[in-house]
């Protein structure tokens, strides 16, 4: 399956750099709506057979223009919502307290999945809910699937599950709003990232540091 993980369009909390992960969350800013409107054109070359969004308003708003352009239903699933910030909810991300959020979630990607976000979920729980939605999509038989999800969730799931993306790579590359990570694989065979925001990701074991971007794709 070809899996396109797309971060939602800009929200007011993104502008204010707040850790805003709760359901239903905010809508999109005018720029976020424009980013969503541009997605059908940005994905024009993709033969999308299924479209998913999380339970948060911002991913459903982002999915709407793509759904309309392709005549697809939006499948809403809680499992692909943002990694919960727990007690750090609405803390500014750049403060020492806020930085604990990214330290915790990338520790999950590095294998410490028993670790729990203060007042929130564990890595085991977070990865399991994300895995379950991807397994559902794979079982549907769709060959190309778009999931409109969230920045931390996409980076951490990809670092945890793609054989050619390491934690350092994903941690160094925040996703822009409507940034796309494209992967190929299956729950049983595993996943390889093909591109990260348009940059080709080197296959594992083909020389050079794993997960090193080679440059702009196509
Ligand atoms: O890192 C953040 O800003 C919050 O976790 C929310 O991420 P999102 O804007 O991608 O949902």
TrEMBL record:
InterPro entries found in the cross-reference section: His_Pase_superF_clade-1, His_PPase_superfam, PG/BPGM_mutase_AS, PGM_Phosphatase
Principal EC category: isomerase
Any one Gene Ontology cellular component term annotated for this protein: cytoplasm
Keyword Isomerase: yes
EC number(s) per entry: 5.4.2.12
GO MF annotations, alphabetized: phosphatase activity; phosphoglycerate mutase activity
Protein's name in the database: Putative phosphoglycerate mutase
Provenance organism: Streptomyces echinatus
Lineage: Bacteria, Bacillati, Actinomycetota, Actinomycetes, Kitasatosporales
């Amino acid at each position: 399956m070809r899996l396109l993980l797309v971060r939602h369009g800009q929200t007011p909390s993104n502008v204010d750099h707040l850790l805003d992960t709760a359901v239903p969350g905010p809508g999109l800013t005018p720029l976020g709506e424009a980013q969503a409107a541009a997605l059908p054109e940005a994905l024009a070359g993709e033969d999308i057979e299924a479209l998913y969004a999380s339970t948060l308003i911002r991913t459903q708003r982002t999915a709407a223009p793509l759904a309309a352009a392709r005549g697809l239903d939006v499948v809403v699933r809680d499992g692909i919502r943002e990694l919960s910030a727990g007690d750090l909810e609405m803390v500014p991300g750049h403060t020492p307290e806020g930085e604990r959020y990214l330290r915790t979630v990338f520790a999950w990607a590095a294998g410490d999945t028993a670790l729990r976000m203060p007042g929130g979920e564990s890595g085991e729980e977070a990865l399991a809910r994300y895995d379950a939605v991807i397994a559902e999509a794979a079982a549907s038989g769709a060959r190309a699937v778009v999931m409109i999800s969230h920045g931390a969730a996409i980076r951490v799931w990809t670092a945890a599950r793609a054989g050619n993306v390491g934690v350092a790579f994903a941690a160094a590359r925040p996703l822009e709003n409507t940034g796309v990570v494209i992967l190929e694989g299956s729950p049983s065979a595993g996943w390889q990232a093909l591109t990260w925001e348009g940059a080709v990701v080197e296959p594992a074991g083909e020389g050079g540091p794993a997960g090193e971007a080679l440059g702009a794709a196509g």
